[in-house]
Amino acid sequence: MPNDEEIRELLADPGLSDWFKQALSSSLDRDPVDAANDAELLSAVLDRRSRAIAADALTSLVIRDAGRR
After folding, report:
1. Which of 9, 35, 47, 63 could bridge across to 30 with cysteines, CB 3.0–4.6 Å?
2. pTM over 0.90
3. Quick one: pLDDT band at residue 67, thresholds 50, 70, 90?
4. pLDDT-based confidence at 4, cuts 50/70/90?
5. Is 69 helix (H, G, I), strand (E, B) or coil?
6. Which of the four pLDDT bands, split at 50, 70 and 90, describes residue 69?
7. Rounded Cα–Cα distance for residues 64 and 69 (Å)
């Protein structure tokens, strides 16, 4: 479990997105179990979306390449 200093370091890291920092910062005011559950669900949704987009892109490439034969 990250301590307060580790969280401050993350919030100050210029390499992390503002979106992530805002989500982390706002989660500190919430019940940690609820925040973790929401983060897990968000991760699953975004993972599924990214996989679907990647699969669609791959399908498009396969179709494009098949048309060149």
Report:
1. 35
2. no
3. confident
4. confident
5. coil
6. confident
7. 9
Q: What residue type is assigned to position 69 of the chain?
A: R
Residue identified by tokens 């609820």 is 34
Tokens read off for 55? 């699969």
CB 33 within 8 A of CB 12: no
The phi, psi pair for 2, rounded to 5°, reads -70, 140
Report CA dihedral (20, 26, 30, 33) to the nearest 10 degrees.
0
Spell out the SS3 assignment of 5-53. Answer: HHHHHHHHCCCCCHHHHHHHHHHCCCCHHHHHHHHHHHHHHHHHHHHHH
